[in-house]
Amino acid sequence: MPAQPPAPPVLYTFPTNDVLVDSLANFVVKAQNDAIDKRGKFSIGLSRGSLAANLRGLVGQQNVRWEKWEVFFVDEAAVPLTSEDSNYHSNYLSFLSTVPIPPSQIHTIDPSLLDNIEELADEYEKQLIGHFAASNAARYPTFDLVLLGMGPDGETCSLFPGHELLEEKDAWVAYLEDAPRGPPKRITMTLPVLTHCYRAVFVVSGSEKAPMLHTILDEPQAGLPCSRVQPA
């Protein structure tokens, strides 16, 4: 059978950040309910950056089935889990520390491997294989929801414009040592993994990002990382 064409992007705008936070929480809960009804669990991937603060609307919600959540981090800096540069740490401070997700269902990097970035990426890929292989016979893991941000240059996850990792087709998790901003050493899920999810949502706030957002939506031929995440 021919592959399904990518679904066209749907743009939602919100008048204030508080409205965005509430709307995002409602969307995540709906995605959770759909996933649990169909597959019995909810797998979610979280990216670095300002996204974590926008998830605070989930705290205190009564209809979140935290015991069914499996949390992964779509990219992570090669830093201790207590570092302010850690994706896990940002999400821990924003909401993971205050909700009852079983610790075994929050999948972090192995901090003992920080000195070997290649092994760090390989070990995280093995975590994905261990979780998804039993229930998913597809070539790539299928997340129920991936929440992504957008960098000022159209970067997402830790996939930067013009970087060789944009062409990676085999690995689920790859590594880089030359990130142009922030911690240079990182691991990141690859484009095929991000594209293979059921839902991908970009959460973008701030008027300074509006020009780049227009470029991503109006000029997909530019091939910026954000515009290349196209779930079917």
UniProtKB/TrEMBL annotation:
Functional pathway: Carbohydrate degradation; pentose phosphate pathway; D-ribulose 5-phosphate from D-glucose 6-phosphate (oxidative stage): step 2/3
EC number: 3.1.1.31
Domain Glucosamine/galactosamine-6-phosphate isomerase: 16-231
Record keywords, A-Z: Hydrolase
Domain of life of the organism encoding this protein: Eukaryota
Job description of the protein: Hydrolysis of 6-phosphogluconolactone to 6-phosphogluconate.
UniProt protein name: 6-phosphogluconolactonase
